[in-house]
Amino acid sequence: MRMKILILLLCASGAQAGTQREQAFAQRLRQVVEHNAGLEPSKAGYQTIAAKLYLGRDPEWCSRRLETLLQDPSGDMFWMFPVTAVAYLGRDKLTPSARGALRKAWKTYMPYRGDTENHWLLYYTSLYLMAQLYPNEPGESWYTGKSSEENLREAEGFLLHWMDLTTTKGQGEYDSTHYIGVYLLPLSYLAEWAGDPAMRLRARMMLDWVIADYAVENLGGLYVGAHARTDDRQVLEKWAGVSSDFGWLLFGLGYPLEGYSYYALFYSVASGYMPPEVIHRIATDRSRNYVHHELKRTRHRWRYSETRNAPVYKTTYMRRDYAVGSDQGGLLQPIQQHSWDVTWAVPDPRGVHNTLFSMHPYSAPFELQMYFTALPDFVTESVVRSKRSYDSPDKFLGGSRYEQIFQDLDTVIALYDIPPGTRYPHINGFFSKDLSKLVEHPSGWIFVQGGQASIAYYPLAPYEWRPIQGGGKRLYSPHLKNGTVVQVAAASEFADFAAFQRAILALPLQTAREPVPSVEFRSLRGHKLKFRYGQTPEVDGQPVRYQDWKLFEGPYLNAAPGSRKLVLTHGSLRRVLDFNEIPSFPPENTPEGR
To answer: Using CA atoms, how far apart are residues 536 and 125, in angstroms rounded to an integer?
Structure first.
């Protein structure tokens, strides 16, 4: 009897916790929508129209404002997705005149499809849903010149291909701090508005897939480690981007962006999907230390590579006080790649630079020609128009073909072998304005502390300090054969900062720069690490077996490459996303979705 009562109490407690989480999520979602609905009407754009339509407010104003905005469409796929949301939210609220103007725009305005993974997902999701909304219409009524059915099938083909590629080889624009919103948004659209129940199911499963990918690599809402794409601000101020906005919206972690992100709003007014409990716990539980591995892929390579999508091997080590994450280095993405960092936990990350890393500020047409199709004489100039820091020697963002990285737990070794004549032949190390301690030891080690993370940084070559606009120091090392060794520990592991320094100084370390950079190091965790530029790294005498890397491997997420199947676990909770087992559904006579 007592056991039955205990079980009933536990079930009631779990149900209450679930209800509280649902209520908190609904409240955050409402905050996002209400904020956008209340923007100044004379300056309001599509997001305000969408928010008001979602709330059922001011339909006549929405109709008038929409017709004004549609007089001069621009933005390509970034025009398509907000107008698609307005079309669905306003089906029974907009005036006939506004609906007519909206439909006409899809005939007279020709949006550019774009050239990146996120562009294509936005483009084809929007085209899929609009073709579904206006079925059985001829090619002359669409900007594509194709009929509704042809548009629908083309878009569906891409969407299914992208889902298959992601669940077998991984994303190309993986773990992007800004573009996570550009993936969650269209999937939210499909999960709510796709008429095909199989597509809705796939979209919900992909939402779980992408959200779980973020959940396991966040520290208090901050996306840590290696990213295919981030930006000049968020690479230093880890909070300041869309990923943090979604960390707050989905899980209540950290702080939302001021005004909330554009993507959070459109995610909210579509499915407004709340992740299941297992993903919530993966995102919020940092009671144990863990290692997490991922296999991703590069974007499509057009030149200078025998492989169209080369593999990307990611490692993240997570603790309550800090996280260390990396990829293997090299040119894995153009322009905005971030290859490794240490991130330490802080109570409030707003305005804080709670990270440390080094990189080679590589800039060359070789990289841009590998991933873009522009002419070599003008490609750098065209990139710098929108990504202004790309060709700067002081930048802290980007990958390099001359960088190789290896990580074991909370130890990182980054090696650089830069040929003479390379543009910007030096290393930039980022040392934050928010470090509480910095000691340059005669041994060559630099000891710093950020939050409750004690960090030892060993540069392989001489360096000098240069100031950073906005605060902090740049470690500038103008040597072609170079490298960085980093060992991190929790401050609580040692009696004081001096004890941490003594422990690091007692560790055997051998480095060389000729003929190529190399490091042999006994880590603080007792592992013998050996890494020589151009060779496979070794741990305790055994080479790292990158060929055995999984799509996901760790205590919470596990998926084999090519499997189309992800298993999520946390304690007794388990969820399986199996794209091989999509059930057949009877035909639906609902071309406009639900």
So the answer is: 41
